[in-house]
Design brief:
The chain is mainly α. It has one domain (23-165). It is 71% helix and 10% strand. It is built from six helices and four strands, in the order ββααααββαα. It has helices spanning 18-21, 25-60, 62-70, 75-111, 130-156, 160-165, and strands at 2-4, 11-14, 113-117, 120-124. Strands 1-2 form a two-stranded antiparallel ribbon. A hairpin with a 2-residue loop joins β3 and β4 (120-124). α2 runs parallel beside α5 (130-156) and α4 (75-111) runs antiparallel to α5 (130-156). The longest helix has 37 residues, at 75-111. It starts with a strand and ends with a helix.
Length: 167
């Protein structure tokens, strides 16, 4: 869009998009894509880790599951026990990870790391929005619930006689 000047006939104002002005636009898009890929990989790691821990928890407690099932504990209660354990594991690990991550960012920010990039002197002061911290906490808790669902269902469907035979 151009607005013509009254006397010169040349445009007074010009409007350009970010893509027109910045040669780094494609690099910014690639970095955004890379961040999404890293998030997906991290979510997968959390999912597999929680699933592994919960499966081992079920396998190590087969005798205990058989005992509580044989004294009349309903399967829904056994399911709730293992789901609660998985959610607690995810929640407390997310809290600990967020606290450690924020502490590291604060240490780096206070250290005032300076470096030269071309002709510019840049000071490294990393920040993280609170929405990202809350988003990470929610994602880890949801993934923990999903990962602990299958082992919890397996534990709740065990027959007391078969589980007691495992002892």
């Amino acid at each position: 869009m151009q607005i013509q000047g009254e006397k010169t006939g040349k445009p007074v104002f010009e409007i350009h998009t970010w893509e027109d002005l910045s040669p780094f636009s494609s690099i910014a898009k690639i970095v955004t894509l890379l961040i999404m890929v890293v998030r997906i990989v991290l979510i997968s790691i959390v999912l597999i880790s929680i699933l592994n821990v919960m499966m081992m928890s079920v396998y190590e407690r087969i005798g205990e599951i058989g005992t509580i099932a044989s004294i009349g504990t309903p399967p829904s209660k056994i399911l709730a026990l293992f789901l609660t354990e998985g959610l607690s594991l995810g929640f407390f690990s997310a809290i600990a990870g967020n606290i450690i991550g924020i502490a590291i960012l604060l240490i780096i920010s206070k250290a005032k790391l300076n470096f030269t990039f071309g002709m510019m002197e840049i000071s490294l002061a990393p920040q993280i929005p609170m929405t990202e911290v809350v988003f990470a906490l929610i994602i880890v808790v949801v993934i923990s619930a999903l990962a602990s669902l299958q082992p919890a269902l397996k534990a709740s469907k065990m027959e007391p006689v078969d589980a007691l035979r495992h002892i």
